[in-house]
Amino acid sequence: MPKNIHGTTKIIGLIGDPLEHSVSFEMHNAVFDKLKLDYCFIPLQVNAQDLGKALNGLRAFGFVGANITIPHKESIIAFLDETTKIPRLIGSVNTVLNQGGKLVGYNTDGPGFIDSLKKDCNFDPKGKKAVILGAGGGSKAVSIMIAKEGIKTLIIADKVYEKSKNLCEYINSHFEIAPYACPTDSNELKVSIESCDLLINATPVGMHPKKDECPIDKSIKIPSNALVYDLIYNPEETELLKMAKKAGARTRNGMDMLVRQGALAFSLFTEQEPPVDIMKATVVEAVKSFKK
Q: What's the whole-model pTM score?
């Protein structure tokens, strides 16, 4: 938290339930301190039935806005005055800005992922072939964004085949691309991964505490020229990333996406350029503290 809070301090909240494992407080407040900005980022644990009341509270107390986390990213849309184009496409909001009492919803998760691909990985998805593991909320955000960026071939695999099929149909209805669904235990998935440019894990498989699990079969040969991006950041190196590194592929964990989406939210809240290096260093230390 900032050392000094005044009557002029601008307040930003994090709305979710639970909030114990979020690193957003450390990330934003460290930047406010470093840049000597009169802002404070605070936790607002809110259950589902009180979500509407909480948003009225943002207006009443004059909050700058709030970040939104699980389980409210989708349900919050019904309580907002307006949403921008990307959250309407993705179907979820993770940032709310209070614009003179009008609450406007944004999504920085998907754009944060694209920022990380381009700025952290020097990877442009246009014209490439991507395989995404999982068809949940995280997958929807990143698959829509890489479709928007001009990915040429997109394969989505989920253990519930119907989910991946539905997501592919949704993307096809909005973009000039025909992604296809793939069963997770199929030879088709194996062949797709072995010829991909980008492999994204958007499942929780491999996340702490089940860090010994891997979302793909160990017999699959990941291309050495591929980028493997695991949205998990705890542990820092999942079994999938170890497997990719052994194959000579480039790897990236979800910490950079976390930082990049936070940086975009910071810009919305403060109208200033985000110091990404400070934000990442703070997140790295915060994640380490969770492991102790």
A: 0.93
